[in-house]
Amino acid sequence: MDALKMRILTDGRNLGNGILKVDGFINHQVDPVLIDACGRELAGRFGNLRATKVLTAEISGIAPALTTALHLGIPIVYARKTKPITMPNQVFLTLAPSHTKGRMVELIVSPEYLSKDERVLIIDDFLATGQTIAGLAQLAQAAGATVVGIGAVIEKIFEGGREFLRPLGVPIESLARISDMSEGRILFAD
Amino acid sequence: MDALKMRILTDGRNLGNGILKVDGFINHQVDPVLIDACGRELAGRFGNLRATKVLTAEISGIAPALTTALHLGIPIVYARKTKPITMPNQVFLTLAPSHTKGRMVELIVSPEYLSKDERVLIIDDFLATGQTIAGLAQLAQAAGATVVGIGAVIEKIFEGGREFLRPLGVPIESLARISDMSEGRILFAD
Questions:
Q1: Which residues on chain B are in Cβ contact (under 8 Å) with A21?
Q2: pTM (2 d.p.)
């Protein structure tokens, strides 16, 4: 998606060690027009999957998942990292490593909003190692739901997430595929 | 806003102690069509303020703030509760009490995305005691920015937030004003 790639090149920053800072338009400050366009594009790519729900993880997955869900006309559920008092005691819970926290975090979904007849499209801001997305897939599977697709705004190809998630056997789409961030570069695959 | 009030009556749950569960359409599962309509309505009510930025707090403020910002065509910044590694060392930080965690939480904004010429519209899912919103106002003021308005999806009038925030001297709008949650009731003010 050209508008996204241009924005990454102008406002993104390569902080080294594979860390791409996109705090100016995706992760802390959000450009709603760009994120809406990303959601429209992801919704278009997955339009034939008959997804019934978008699943993401708080916090930074919420914006792209919301706009994708808006364009598909289906609800979004965001997995919580702490259990709010409004959630029942019996939940679906899995652990996933947090890139930014350097430890495992919990991903929690209430069984009220994920059931066995659901067709789940997983959306996140980044596809990197794929471990958060794998955690979301496990939550869906724990509910007996079917994962039907995986979408990300930005993919860091060199972290291998696409291969890691391939056993799920579902289409994987990302809007900006970065192949190289060594020596300060930000190079796209296509 | 009638569609919102109807949804609160059909899918919301009064858990007692003033806790309104809206996890089915705002806080865990999100109805993107409803939240987009809420954003459109808030944007309309604040359309004459010449706001340059929407400010909210992660996590549950993100969805209504994003759709409001989308309809206003301005960026949104969400205050973080933990400082990510991509954020500079020098930040704006304030403390606010967390209703659901029962302790103080940090609200952190990078000075990169909040500056003194900014006109800030604060949006959150709930206006209850007003303390989170007051914390966001303090962040904006620390940056030298001007708070121009405050909007919430749901207001719990009986928690007094509107009076608490009145000294800020800005318009305060909410889309569903609940006046009474005693004895299992959910009563609207108008």
A1: 86
A2: 0.97
Show the tokens assigned to B30: 């999100």
For residue B111, the distance in angstroms to the closest alpha carbon of chain A comes to 11
Q: HSE, CB side, 13 Å, CA atoms: give it for residue A111.
A: 9
Q: How is chain B split into domains, by residue range?
A: 2-188
What's the rounded mean pLDDT across residues A99-114? 88
| Chain B CA closest to residue A77 | B29
In chain A, what is the greatest distance between 2 CA atoms, to the nearest angstrom?
Answer: 48
Residue of A nearest to B39 (CA): A32
**What is the ipTM metric for this complex?**
0.96
Interface mutation vs chain A, best among B19, B23, B28, most A CBs within 10 Å: B28
Using DSSP's 3-state secondary structure scheme, residue B168 falls into: helix
CATH architecture for segment(s) B2-188: 3-Layer(aba) Sandwich (3.40)
Give the other-Cβ count within 10 Å of A42's Cβ: 28
Per-10-residue mean pLDDT for chain B, 190 residues long? 97 96 97 98 97 96 98 98 91 87 89 97 97 97 98 98 98 98 95
Q: How far is A29 from chain B (nearest CA, A)?
A: 4
